[in-house]
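Morning run. Coffee first, then this:
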Amino acid sequence: MVLTLKDEDGRPYMIRIKQRGMEHYDPERVALMTEGPPPQPEGRKLEEIPTFMQPWKRFPLNFPDNSHLPIFGEKELFRGTSNTIALEFKNKGNDFFRRRKWWDAREAYIEAFEFGPDDPELVEVLWLNMAAANIELKYWPGVLGPAAKAITLNLKSIKGYFRAARALVHYERYEEATDCCKR
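And here it is:
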């Protein structure tokens, strides 16, 4: 849980309190081990959507995990807006990535999302970076979802298409990988 407050001078700060619990999964979805692509903005034409992201396609299910969470009930104080705090975590993740600490990079990007950034460019970069870290970890179920979310935000996301294509090749979905490369 993240609380947004203001200090005496009106400057924003956030308190993150770790709680037990995670997203609940539909048992049928878990049994299939797949999930659908992210919803597309209204008015987007089907031909604009990469074939791997079309509504009837399925992704390997990307189970989130709790590895990045500190001890339950732990409180952390962060100064700034949701975007500035998320940017700090993105930069921390990028530093880990440069040092080839892929898991730590991925965890930093996950933490950035906890603060609910609303800058579309920052959110796109976070999804792209998470996909890149998952590629380096060879955690293929965690590549298609983030790449698709980045592409949903920006249909011209070359990195999103490239990262999705790499995962699609791993799953031997060559026609869809080719479609990504042509965009």
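Residues 124 and 155 are 11 Å apart (CA to CA). Good start to the day.
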